[in-house]
From TrEMBL:
Stated family: Belongs to the GARS family.
GO terms assigned for molecular function: ATP binding; metal ion binding; phosphoribosylamine-glycine ligase activity
Name the UniProt record assigns to this protein: Phosphoribosylamine--glycine ligase
Catalytic activity: 5-phospho-beta-D-ribosylamine + glycine + ATP = N(1)-(5-phospho-beta-D-ribosyl)glycinamide + ADP + phosphate + H(+)
Pathway: Purine metabolism; IMP biosynthesis via de novo pathway; N(1)-(5-phospho-D-ribosyl)glycinamide from 5-phospho-alpha-D-ribose 1-diphosphate: step 2/2
One GO term of the biological process aspect: 'de novo' IMP biosynthetic process
Enzyme class name: ligase
Lineage of the species this protein comes from: Bacteria, Bacteria division WOR-3
Any Pfam family matching the protein: GARS_A
Residues covered by the ATP-grasp domain: 107-313
Amino acid sequence: MKVLIVGGGGREHALAWKLHRAKKVKQIYAAPGNPGIAQIGTCVNILASDIPGLARFAEEKKIDLTVVGPELPLAMGIVDEFQKRGLKIFGPDKKASRIEADKSFAREFMNKFGIPAPKFQVYETAHEARRYTKTINKFPVVVKASGLAGGKGTFIVNNRKEYEKVVDELLVQHRLGEAGKRIVVEEFLVGQEMSVFVLTDGLSIVYLPSAQDHKRLYDRNRGPNTGGMGAYAPYPTNKRITNIIEQVIIQPTILSLRDQGIDYQGVLYAGLIITSLGPMVLEFNCRFGDPETQVILPLIEGDFFTPLLAVAEKRLSEINLKVKNLWSICVVLASAGYPFDYHIGEEIQFKQKLDSKTLLFHAGTKMEDSHLVTASGRVLNVVTVYENLKIAKQRAYEEIKKIHFNGMYYRKDIGNTGMKKMKRKRRR
């Protein structure tokens, strides 16, 4: 079987690594890919947004399955184009991708069908948005650009001055362009965040390991939001919370999408917050998370190609997915200045050889004059898998000491929340 992976970050490297291990997969292509993927497959110089180019390539190479990593090509309709040409592809179509691509649509959908979520308001002009401070006027509050903003469209504001500044930047200065032409103002909720992933062909559902992402730049969840500074899996929870997630959030969402004429096929990613009132949906995404994918895939037993193909062929009911009884942790190594202005082109050096059990996924690297250099804000993902979360964390940070590039930055507390939750469980 030949597989094409669309994208070129850490998530796509993790997908390539997992699919490469499947006996059925004989050739992996990635567009555009990265130097890490190039070690196990063939990188193709086609952008993830070049849908006609990707479709032509899939036809020429007789690709058996295309797996889409990022949200942009999904929102642009890559699945629709591939299906029109009779090409098998994993991911939701353009209509279904609105669950992520249009946050106002997602919030209105959740409200209509009773999916637990924060209270919200949608505004299209600065004049309308300023009414919030004259009516509700409750802080802190979350302001989100309704469209796709590459992880830069969520703002937690603590007072009226900050709120008006964000409103001005999005709706007057148009800092995020089309993505910010409409904003969603949401109630600020307190609790632990949790990422839940399911495969679905529109009818059947297969649950993947849960995870917890660390979105803020600095330790103890301080600083600006990022695309994700690290993750661990599984997220420790209890049967009551799990049942609520399955019966009140995931199953009703997929069934309600069908009621709306949306046949959702692919992975549904629910970003949840576990509040004192129970789990609530912070966001739905139409693709695998990054960096959650990097910690989830190592926990899945055996072949991952078969379930992805089963989704594309609408026969997911045949799949019985098994999960290892292990813990996985990922620490993101980022460029200084990320998520704002950051320098690229710094040479990446390995002072010692990494342990054979350590997984290293390339997130933003490139080859320059035969040297591996930084090419983005998030550069590398260091992943370790052990029977104990504490050991997994210790080993990950020991391995990071072997890597160096100028301005390398990473959080030091990835996994701490999970260890605290496990301690509390043991005390009970």
